Amino acid sequence: MKLDSKIPEGPLNKKWTDYKDHLKLVAPNNRPKLDIIVVGTGLAGASAAASLGEMGYNVKAFCFQDSPRRAHSIAAQGGINAAKNYQNDGDSIYRLFYDTIKGGDYRAREANVHRLAEVSGNIIDQCVAQGVPFAREYGGMLDNRSFGGVQVQRTFYAAGQTGQQLLLGAYSSLSRQIGLGRVKMFNRHEMLDLVKIDGKARGIIARNLITGEIERHSAHAVVIASGGYGNVYFLSTNAMGSNVSAGWKVHKRGAAFSNPCYVQIHPTCIPVHGTNQSKLTLMSESLRNSGRIWVPKKKEDAEAIRAGKLKPTQIAEEDRDYYLERRYPAFGNLVPRDVASRAAKERCDEGYGIEANDTNEGVYLDFSSEIKSKGKEVAYAHGNHNPSEEEIIKLGKEWIEEKYGNLFEMYEKITDENPYETPMKIYPAVHYTMGGVWVDYNLQSSIPGCFVAGEANFSDHGANRLGASALMQGLADGYFVLPYTVSNYLADEIRTGKISTDAPEFAEAEKNVKDSIDKFLNNNGTKSVDYFHKRLGLVMWNKVGMARNEKGLKEAIEEIGQIRDEFYKDVFVPGSAEELNPELEKALRVADFLELGQLMAMDALQRNESCGGHFREEYQDAEGETLRDDENFSFVSAWEYKGQDTTKAELHKEDLKYEFIKIAARNYK
């Protein structure tokens, strides 16, 4: 396998502009002759399908949900980054580029990240034109807030539901194209295989999840925009249906899978309550703008809180350890996610956790200081220069409610605690995955004609994603990158003609899918799919989670192999193939997770360094910070599939070259 990143020559700030100027085009009268399949209708998929449909291509869009509006992009809360410098605090395209590279611990491609920063401003203009209701300042200008890992305000937001509003904007554009007949929407369809003819991606095999029918769909190009693989851990902030199958099927057909060990642990999640929990709930990182994170300074206070003998509000200010402010004074509570997560784990491992769960893991996110500060500010703005404590608290709570009200409401519904009165309990949890299908500068995988966008690819975040950059990447890929690069590829396909689904390659792929389904349904095992998924998740969290070491990773590779063998021997899938069968859907997805989980452990084992979300306990400094090894590991790992036994996978390396920035130790102190 040869990896060619196709990064253009020339100055960094001109690469994308010059590259676009020389890409091949498809004339408007030829576009209706060409078919494109888009798998996934979150921000990346919906924006890509809408844009390509608007250009005149025939687009088929697929989602396993009953509507594109249910894509997991809807769950993103805090905001979307863009370098518009509305706050006049020194932001620029270069600074957004640099913060993203640094936040990713110098493990991302320079050219891809700079392109992302370049088009970020266009995204905001596009979304405003669609009617996305971004928050605005008193004068009517778009408002911004800060996110972790930066020292400027560049995050545009819509209360605590930014992802939902952006997805509705993309969905409205997609719906317009569906109404015009340029996009054909296939709801409740799941991609189960990629079809290659003469080495090129030429279509997919999909299952109608309502009827069970196996369908063949052909196209001149296929775009995979199916999200990340966080649910390999079973418990994560992802929707229960989120899975890796579309990306993994592409990998099994010959596309390299990159950096699978790079997983983001988000620091502000509601802690695990019990062993029967099926998913975790995220509290937006935007809350770290206003909340201060702390644990008790005294272990006996932490023990008393866990025992229910002491309330957090009874802990005096001098007895609170605001550990992020103490350790990282320059950034404080706004350090990047991986740094904040490890710091919380360290405090809880030392016995200062405050949640009365199985592991005593939890820290406080406290808004009392912000309520008082903003309450006083609002009172002054209203002309009251001597407000009472009661007035300050009332006005401060109203300010917080306007900014974060729906998040506070959600927290109270889940925990039955009022976060205006009592600090939120939070703890890190699996959230986003930086790894994914390897793509070149065109977002094309190592399979010609197969493009991968959004979280499903590996390209922009390195070893750690900065908050509010996922929405930015998804929409950048769909609105402003793929329309150029897919067209460049399709310029050579104008004379190809319609791709027939009667080709033997379609028949073979369909047979493989049906055989796999029949195998599960006729297995007659004794254990449910979730039984195996939970076992996999425990191994992944304990040994391939927030901290990894050589011994644990080797054990994980062995244990996951054993779980996979047991899964195929003893899983029980009820029902039939010709009906709505959620257990069958889960079985097919967990089969892929079992292979991926092993690859994640292998990738983490070969990377003898700590960087971003990949923390090897053997590679840390005296203060517990990451120790990168730029001399030996400044590369993208790209794995080639060599069969169901993932230990046979072959590693390829794409060296990362930094021409325009200086690599430095990542310091937020």
From TrEMBL:
Q: Does the keyword Oxidoreductase apply?
A: yes
Q: Which residues form the FAD-dependent oxidoreductase 2 FAD-binding domain?
A: 35-471
Identify the species of origin. Answer: Flavobacterium jejuense
What domain of life?
A: Bacteria
Residue ranges of domain Fumarate reductase/succinate dehydrogenase flavoprotein-like C-terminal in the record: 533-668
InterPro entries of this UniProt entry? Answer: FAD-dep_OxRdtase_2_FAD-bd, FAD/NAD-bd_sf, Fum_R/Succ_DH_flav-like_C_sf, Fum_Rdtase/Succ_DH_flav-like_C, SdhA/FrdA/AprA, Succ_DH/Fum_Rdt_flav_su, Succ_DH/fumarate_Rdtase_cat_sf
Gene3D superfamilies assigned to the protein according to its UniProt record, in alphabetical order: FAD/NAD(P)-binding domain (3.50.50.60), Fumarate reductase/succinate dehydrogenase flavoprotein-like, C-terminal domain (1.20.58.100), Succinate dehydrogenase/fumarate reductase flavoprotein, catalytic domain (3.90.700.10)
The entry's protein name is Fumarate reductase/succinate dehydrogenase flavoprotein subunit
Q: Where are the transmembrane segments?
A: none
Q: Which UniProt keywords apply?
A: Flavoprotein, Oxidoreductase
Entry cofactors:
FAD
